[in-house]
Amino acid sequence: MFARTYGSETFGIEGIIIDVEVDVSPGLPHFEVVGLAESSVKEAKGRFRPAIKNSGFSLQQEKVTINLAPADVRKSSPGLDLPMAVGVLAAYGEIPAKKLQGSLFIAELTLEGELRPVRGVLPMTIAARDMGFERIFVAPDNADEALLVDGIEVYAPPNLREVADFLTGRKNILPAESHADEIPPTSAFHEDFADVQGQFFAKRALEIAAAGGHNVLMVGSPGSGKTMLARRMPTILPKLSREEALEVTKIYSIVGKLPKSGGLVDERPFRSPHHDVTMQAVSGGGTIPRPGEVTLAHNGVLFLDELPEFNKQTLETLRQPLEDRVVTVSRVNATVTYPANIILICAMNPCPCGYAGDKSGAHRCVCSADEIKRYTRRISGPLLDRIDIHINVPRVKYEDLSAKTKAEPSAKIRERVEAARKIQFRRLKKYDVFCNAQINRGFLRETCPMESAAQELLRQAFERLYMSGRSHDRVIKVARTIADLAGEEIITARHISEAVGLRADVGLNIE
Questions:
Q1: What is the H or E stretch that residue 229 is in?
Q2: What SS3 class is residue 206?
Q3: H/E element holding 400?
Q4: Which of 398, 400, 391, 401 shows the shortest CA–CA distance to 220?
């Protein structure tokens, strides 16, 4: 007999519907899975045959062939266990084949027949709804994730026996209900800008970066507060919209990093990989491509501390994502494009010992000119050119540290940032971009009108600082953000002056 069920697989951050065709025919007992299945899927026969037996079914030993289509897509998800097992039961006549119509099955099976959770259920459920499926069967631990998708019924039976009993009409199962609201929400952020005393220039720079989505490089001696500032960046970014939250949740679903609540990821990601991270771990990849750090930071912040200590090739992989807001991973088997709309925050010392240019007199730099040059040359000019804001972060003064007045909290700064983002959204929505950092050169002049004095000041800065065309455009975008924070439509010389100051020489000797 023949039966057809449906499962799902992920490709990039999207779900793909997999046709599971099962044929049972007389002959020598044999079991075969075809259709470009990885070993994790081929091994399913060792799981779901005992699962079927331990669920109370006694099937005659015959020739069983399972085809997973489309054949040109690699299948690696253990979530195909359940649709294959249900398909086998239907082919043996234990489940009416017509009862499988409109249903999608996603779960790994234990040898006892229990349903285990798998990664990527959210994008798979979205794909099922978009393809017109009426209901989806998942493991109980995946129920809250699947329930994030409207327009499709979610069932979460504990084992294969209950799935079969429901499909044969022997037992009724009610659709799953979300329990995410029962878990008290916990903020991912325990930091606040109110904790940062002094550093007014750096905090202003980060506010501008948050308001316009700009990348930032902070240069300063050890203990000046660069890491402390960077870790508080997500607390002043606008709250995630539902669309952004769904994108982030899909990514974290695929890599198995969803919060225990099972609900949407409602805080902007903050990723801070160690400097010995591999190029593949940053950009993504593998035999079966998976998202890397730059994608895990999508709609949030990627923080690279001790920037020159990173492998130079690893840093160069960031050039395309910073420009295109996506990262493309090409392999022999597939080419996958992941989203990578990030704010890049980098921190570094001015030299190997960390004290070059320290004006406090507390430490004296012991590095030679050649050592400093070798240190700073680890960062390429093209990468620096893609970072909008370059600032020095000096050591904090004692008067600032001992001040009794509390610094401005993140909530107040976030209010100004969100107000500026609303202005940008109204201006830029027809161009299908959402913040100033994303403005394309083709409509830069239209969206960033400048008074004549501002144009003249920009011309002087361009010639005096030997700016590239990219640097010129990024200064204009930062000035546009400064104007938006001030609620002004026209970019003035004051805005250009501050934007140029935020891209001033930070003492790096890069040739």
A1: helix 226-231
A2: helix
A3: helix 398-401
A4: 391
H/E element holding 108? strand 108-109
What pLDDT, on the 0 to 100 scale, is given for residue 186? 47
- pLDDT tens-digit map of 125-148: 999 999 999 999 999 999 999 999
Within 13 A of 275's CA, how many CA atoms are on the CB side?
A: 13
CB 477 within 8 A of CB 500: no
Whole-number pLDDT of residue 505: 60
Q: Could you report the per-residue pLDDT of 234-272, keeping only the tens digit for each? A: 999 999 999 999 999 999 999 988 877 667 898 999 999
Q: Which residues pair with 32 in a beta bridge?
A: 65
**Segments of the chain with pLDDT less than 70:** 179-189, 261-262, 332-333, 360-362, 505-511
The CA distance from 414 to 210, in Å, is: 9
Per-position DSSP letters for 402-470, written without gaps between them: T--SPPPPHHHHHHHHHHHHHHHHHHHGGGT--SGGG--GGGHHHHS-B-HHHHHHHHHHHHHTT--HH
CA distance 220 to 307: 12
Overall residue count recorded for the chain in this entry: 511
Which residue carries 């507390």 as its tokens? Answer: 362
User: For residue 185, what are the contacts with CB-CB under 8 A and spacing of at least 6?
Assistant: 261, 266
* Measured distance CA(128)–CA(49) in Å, rounded: 26
d(CA 7, CA 111): 20
pLDDT at 511: 39
Distance CA 74, CA 68 (A): 9
**Within 62-177, where are the H helices?**
81-91, 121-130, 143-146, 160-168
Residue 360 corresponds to which tokens in the numbers above? 């406090």
Q: How far apart are CA 174 and CA 41, in angstroms?
A: 30
